[in-house]
Design goal:
The structure is a single chain. With 403 residues, the chain is α+β, with helices and mostly antiparallel strands. It has two domains: 192 residues, Aminopeptidase (3-Layer(aba) Sandwich), CATH 3.40.630; 186 residues, Aminopeptidase, CATH 3.40.630. The protein is 26% helix and 30% strand. The chain contains eleven helices and 16 strands. It has an eight-stranded mixed beta sheet with strand order 1-2-3-4-5-6-8-7, sandwiched between helices. It binds coenzyme A. The site of coenzyme A has 22 residues, from α2, β5, α5 and α6.
């Protein structure tokens, strides 16, 4: 059943007519039911798991007594208060416990609710979380809820994938609103409205494992790349040409690396590591930032670690990224802003046909345009020592087939 924004039931939720303590929800493969004493051993095993401990605010170590308290008290609280539905998620075919999913009504705006979940380690990878979330959302909308909200820690990509698969829309970032181990981290806030279609969200930047031309490969930047990223960005030459002449600290790099997968998933930016095929060393990086997503336009930025410069690696990496951007992601224009006197950067992206070796089919449009010499950092950027210089903008679009 679909509700419209004017549906009077959306103002007051949810109905008092249901027996909250007994309420159950069924999906194609799952049953969401009240917690029972017999669930305690499986709850203990799932909550003691490393991933659950890392992402969820659970007692540590998680004992059998904690599990008993959850199934008899914690997991029953919302139902008793009529303020939400905490459910054990059970596989219908086997009756095995495979996770937990709960929806909690906002204390004053009861047409709004928040959803949370975990899946037992033995049942992960079967897309159960998205199915349970979808089921509980539908139950919520049928009982007058207008908006279900979901928070996922920025580095918790699996959870963000669950949200997107279950038809949630990414709204933005909330600071320090989630946990990762003992740390407090920023979270992505998603919502799904009763009026939303509930279909998986579009992905402007498709997933990429790795592409290789035999000499270098490009793959997403990932946790473990921090030292190399810091080395790349600390080098004097890199700092000389960087917009804003920013000094990168270890913390900045860690934040950048840990948010890379989330930014990719959101279609904000694809951060590629350039890897030397022979040594498997991270030798540099390319960033592709969507500047006009609605028009398929993105801006490239790149940097090479000092030891690996002048080997043609970045030219190769840009050819791989460009082919991916035009052929896989369907972008229509890539732009590259460099300082007018940064000749090394411009030669990496030449305006002749040298790049158009395999994977080819495109050529650089060679129109170079000087624009506003004042272009540079806003006053909000940390280092004031940056001197504005003239910039060159190069752009590239896929070649149109000749008629
Ligand atoms: C997050 C969690 C609930 C996902 O449950 P699940 O049923 O295994 O989810 P799925 O099988 O649908 O996998 C989710 C997606 O993440 C991907 N994924 C799984 N593990 C991943 C990882 N470590 N890194 C990146 N992606 C990962 C899967 O490929 C899948 O992507 P796709 O659906 O786009 O193909 C489960 O991993 C979990 O319980 N984690 C610990 C608790 C937690 O994080 N809860 C959420 C708090 S907000």
């Amino acid at each position: 059943m679909r509700h419209t924004a004017k549906d009077p039931r959306l103002a007051q939720a949810p109905s008092d007519a249901i027996d909250w303590t007994e309420e159950r929800v069924e999906t194609a493969r799952l049953l969401l039911r009240p917690w029972a004493m017999a669930d305690a051993p499986a709850v203990q095993a799932a909550c003691a798991d490393e991933q659950s401990q890392h992402w969820l605010p659970l007692p540590s170590p998680y004992t059998f007594a904690d599990a008993e308290r959850w199934v008899t008290e914690g997991g029953q609280l919302l139902r008793r208060d009529r303020s939400g539905l905490q459910c054990a998620v059970v596989e219908r075919a086997t009756e095995q416990l495979v996770g937990s999913c709960g929806v909690r009504l906002h204390p004053s705006r009861r047409a709004c609710a928040e959803i949370g979940y975990w899946v037992s380690p033995w049942a992960r990878g079967r897309r159960y979380a998205a199915e349970a979330v979808d089921g509980l959302c539908r139950w919520s909308y049928d009982h007058g809820v207008a908006r279900v909200e979901l928070l996922a820690a920025v580095p918790n990509v699996a959870s963000q994938r669950v949200a997107m698969r279950a038809g949630f829309v990414r709204e933005g970032l909330v600071r320090s609103a989630a946990r990762a181990g003992t740390e407090s981290v920023d979270a992505v806030v998603f919502s799904r409205l009763a009026t939303d279609p509930g279909t998986p969200a579009a992905r402007p930047l498709p997933d990429l494992d790795e592409v290789d031309d035999g000499v270098v490969s490009v793959r997403p930047v990932r946790v473990g790349d921090e030292d190399a990223v810091l080395d790349e960005r600390s080098d004097a030459e890199a700092r000389r040409w960087a917009t804003g002449a920013r000094t990168w600290l270890r913390d900045d790099v860690e934040r950048l690396v840990r948010s890379a997968a989330s930014a990719w998933l959101a279609g904000v930016e694809a951060r590629f590591a350039v890897v030397e095929t022979a040594s498997q060393e991270y030798v540099g990086s390319v960033g592709l930032r969507m500047t006009m997503p609605a028009f398929g336009v993105a801006e490239l930025g790149y940097g090479m670690r000092a030891r690996w410069r002048r080997r043609g690696y970045m030219t190769r990496a840009l050819a791989l990224v460009t082919a991916w951007a035009f052929q896989r992601a369907g972008l229509v224009r890539l732009e590259l802003g460099t300082a007018a006197d940064n000749l090394a950067s411009q030669r990496t992206a030449p305006d002749d046909d040298r790049l158009a070796q395999p994977p080819r089919a495109e050529g650089w449009h060679g129109r170079r345009r000087r624009y506003n010499p004042g272009i540079g950092p806003s006053s909000a950027l940390p280092d004031a020592a940056w001197t504005p210089r003239a910039s060159t903008k190069i752009h590239r679009t896929p070649l149109r087939p000749s008629r």
